[in-house]
Specification:
- The structure holds two protein chains of two kinds.
- Chain A is mainly alpha-helical.
- Chain A contains 15 helices and no strands.
- Chain B is globular and about 75 Å long.
- Classes of the chains: A mainly alpha, B alpha/beta.
- At the A-B interface, helix 1 and helix 14 of A face helix 2, helix 3, strand 2, helix 5 and helix 14 of B.
Chain lengths: 348, 458
């Protein structure tokens, strides 16, 4: 499809040669299109055949066969998309930059001992600890506050809206917010202009100010994730049975006590799921750092460094080692998340 | 490393439609349908097609090509070989991608290499040759290379002394952008020596009308690359080609007193608080200003000069008149040491073959000829070839003319962008990072040199 577009730019040129070339382009396209149709037909045919065979099977084969038919595709995809890449990445992480020879755990040694990567690991930990907690806390606060307002749907939509913006888009917006110019020139950055208006005459160049810049980048994540936390938590709060709250009220609980002893315990599992989900998003954070600073000025994080090692510096060994570290770091979170989700489902 | 992306930016100018219609008609009439017989003897091409006789005999074959050049520049490329295609009957199936650098190795290793690729970095060419999949060029391409290019180009298309790829396009980096209008009004003249340039900078700084220099090295993940170009210009212009080559191969380290001295020259120039960063603020703003925005204050009179390559011409806002008597133009960046004969730093793309099928070689031969370069230049401006067989009168754009003049100068000390030649861990990694820290966080020269040397792969 793309090839067809790229190979036939002559389409539409006002030359007499174009009809002929366009014809070949169309033929090319038609050829590819019919190939796609044929492939789809073969695939559907094969599926029909398998289902038919499985349906006709009797006796002791019925059960194993139906298990294979239903589970097979998922297992296959899981293998191709997850298991094999994981094994291969681990294997590559033990090899040199061009994957030509084995160098043992040297890549891991590098990842844990070299000082630039130290900074990366520290930043990543900062991100995981601070950003999800703040996003969840803010989401919870807003959920509690908005819940009592009259036209809550409007406020909720407004807060939820940043969630619909991609990280790259959000970063570009915030890039303008943090833009700094010399105080002698007119500012185009919102933040600089605001603090100048408030009387701080020489604000810093925000993006360059380490370690502040890390937090400024986290603000972007929090901005987009607060809406998510708020919506999920608000739903959980609504789901608290009315009688429980009423009973607590009767017993004289209100305000903070009601929140601490009734609301929070009732939504605990949802809270954990939200927190871990945002944490996993944070671990994978890549777009914000890449767009805002490209990992410079002491803001690099693991996912971005992994990309840079593999695809900019072509050191597949180091890139793979970082990928494995990231994978291992995400695993417990994912596991915990699944357990919590199950528990929540069983209580409903 | 990233410059090829910018390169394609550089070509982003208005497409100029030639009038190939009439040519095309005659061509089609002349060629008819010669795609039938496969084992037929080489047909003789007549009329306008006669010039393609050396490439005849492969009608009906398709050659695939992959490069980082995307539309609209790729449209100009395809137009440049349209006549070749219709005369010889060789179809060139072109695909351009922004992810070319990361995708090419994947394709080559996966067994789906294109027949031809335009590789913008000698480092990537080396990496490809290592895979053993790169085909040696046919003798005609080698002959063209020897005949039409400055010797230095051949070494950049070679790996371990074996020649593999002839250059396609070229860009010139030793340029300083300025406003001829503002210069005339203020009574300044474009400097022709480094000393004049420094004196002019001091004069402008004292005049109180803006700062003499502006700069921006922010470029997403490639942040830092423009500053590596600055150092390369100084190393080449201060010590000449031999030291430059030894520096590229790490025989001379970054912490060598020569390179440290060159870095000091750069610091006195682009980190001089009185001289930069016109229109943006202090020295540190160089790190946060995008290279695309860097030259804009020249138009507003807040800044006077910007060192940036020929492809920066595409960054000026619409309606800016580029030319010797226009709003902006460029002068040749003079050598730091006047004893060095015309140092020219540049970049370019290399036509690399992954197949030695005869039709692929025919296309490879054609792309190394001055005829193809001339055909491409005529399609649209913003594209320069270092091929000395090209008649310079075909260039219509003044910046292209200036670039071509220096790129094809047989006496020039031409060298390829050093960071594109160094291992990617340095040239696309630590050097960018450390230079960004140097400009943005005020890291010391010694620390910068030490970190880069430490990152050099063993």
């Amino acid at each position: 499809m793309t090839a067809a577009i790229f190979t036939e730019p002559v389409l539409g040129y006002p030359t007499l040669a174009s009809p002929l070339l366009a014809d070949s382009g169309l033929a090319d396209f038609a050829g590819k299109f019919s190939q796609v149709i044929a492939a789809l037909a073969i695939f559907l045919g094969a599926l029909a055949l398998i289902f038919f065979a499985a349906g006709r099977a009797t006796g002791r084969f019925t059960r194993p066969l139906s298990i294979a038919v239903f589970l097979g595709p998922a297992v296959l995809l899981l293998f191709v998309g997850l298991v094999i890449p994981t094994i291969r990445t681990t294997y590559l992480s033990l090899k040199s930059d061009d994957s030509a020879r084995f160098i043992g755990v040297k890549n891991y040694q590098w990842a844990f001992t070299s000082s630039p990567i130290h900074q990366v690991l520290v930043n990543t930990v900062e991100w995981i600890v601070i950003a999800p907690v703040l996003a969840t806390a803010l989401g919870l606060t807003v959920a509690l506050l908005v819940d009592r307002l009259r036209s809550q749907a409007v406020y909720k939509s407004l807060i939820f809206m940043p969630m619909a913006i991609s990280f790259v888009g959000a970063s570009i917006i915030w890039k303008f917010v943090y833009d700094a110019r010399d105080p002698a020139h007119p500012q185009i950055g919102l933040l600089s202009q605001v603090v100048i208006a408030l009387g701080w005459h020489r604000p810093p160049n925000w993006i360059l100010s380490h370690p502040l810049n890390n937090f400024l980048l986290m603000v972007i994540l929090i901005w987009t994730q607060t809406g998510f936390a708020m919506v999920v938590l608000a739903a959980a709060i609504r789901a608290i049975p009315e009688d429980v709250v009423e009973a607590a009220r009767m017993d004289g609980a209100k305000g903070g006590r009601l929140l601490y002893y009734v609301t929070l315990p009732m939504i605990r599992s949802t809270l954990v799921v939200v927190l871990t989900t945002v944490m996993i998003t944070t671990l994978k954070i890549f777009d914000i750092v890449r767009t805002m600073t490209g990992g410079n000025f002491g803001t690099q994080v693991l996912a971005n460094e992994m990309y840079s090692q593999s695809f900019v510096q072509f050191n597949y060994g180091r890139g793979s080692a970082l990928a494995v570290i990231l994978f291992v770091a995400v695993l417990p979170l994912v596991g915990y998340n699944i357990v919590q989700l199950r528990r929540e489902r069983s209580t409903r | 490393m990233f410059t090829n992306v910018l390169l394609s930016d550089g070509r982003r100018r208005g497409l100029r439609f030639l009038a190939p219609a009439i040519v095309a008609v005659t061509v089609l009439a002349a060629c008819g349908n010669d795609s039938s017989g496969k084992a037929a003897p080489v047909p003789s091409l007549t009329g306008d097609c006669a010039q393609y006789q050396p490439y005849a005999g492969h009608a009906g074959k398709t050659v695939t090509m992959y490069a980082s050049i995307i539309s609209p520049e790729s449209d100009s490329l395809q137009k440049s070989w349209a006549q070749f295609s219709s005369c010889t009957g060789i179809k060139i199936s072109y695909e351009g991608s922004n992810d070319f650098e990361s995708q090419l190795p994947v394709r080559v290793q996966g067994g789906t290499a294109p027949d031809l690729a335009f590789i913008p970095q000698p480092g990537l060419l080396q990496q490809m040759v290592k895979t053993g999949k790169v085909a040696k060029p046919p003798s005609r391409t080698v002959a063209n290379e020897d005949k039409y290019w400055n010797k230095a180009w051949k070494t950049y298309g070679s790996v371990n002394g074996t020649f593999y790829a002839a250059p396609a396009s070229a860009n010139m980096k030793s340029m300083v952008w300025y406003s001829p209008k503002a210069f005339t009004q203020a009574g300044y003249q474009a400097p022709t020596t480094w000393a004049q340039m420094m004196t002019l900078s001091a004069t402008i700084a004292q005049s109180g009308k803006g700062k003499p220099w502006c700069g921006g090295i922010n470029s997403g993940t490639a942040t830092g690359w423009p500053s590596t170009d600055w150092l390369e210009e100084i190393v080449l212009g201060k010590y000449g080609g031999d030291v430059y080559d030894q520096w590229v191969s790490h025989k001379i380290k970054f912490s060598d007193s020569k390179i440290i001295a060159a870095m000091q020259v750069l610091a006195d120039w682009m980190q001089n608080p009185a001289w930069v960063n016109g229109g943006f603020g202090d020295v540190k703003t160089i790190a946060t200003t995008t290279f695309q925005d860097a030259g804009k204050p020249i138009l507003a009179g807040q800044c006077w000069m910007l060192q940036q390559a020929s492809f920066y011409g595409a960054q000026w806002p619409k309606g800016t008149k580029v030319g010797a008597d226009g709003d902006v133009f460029a002068f040749y960046l003079p050598a730091n040491n006047p004893a060095i004969p015309t140092p020219v730093e540049g970049g370019g793309e290399f036509t690399t073959a992954f197949s030695n099928r005869p039709e692929v070689q025919a296309v490879q031969n054609y792309l190394s000829s001055p005829e193809w370069a001339t055909s491409r230049i005529k399609v649209a401006s913003g594209w320069v070839s270092a091929n000395q067989g090209v008649d310079k009168s075909v260039y219509t754009d003044q910046v292209d003319q200036l670039s071509a003049k220096y790129l094809t100068d047989p006496n020039a000390t031409f060298r390829f962008d050093a960071s594109d030649l160094m291992p990617a861990a340095v040239g696309a990694g630590q050097e960018w990072k450390s230079f960004t820290a140097w400009f943005g966080s005020g890291q010391s020269i010694q620390q910068v040199a030490k970190d880069i040397d430490a990152a050099w792969p063993n």
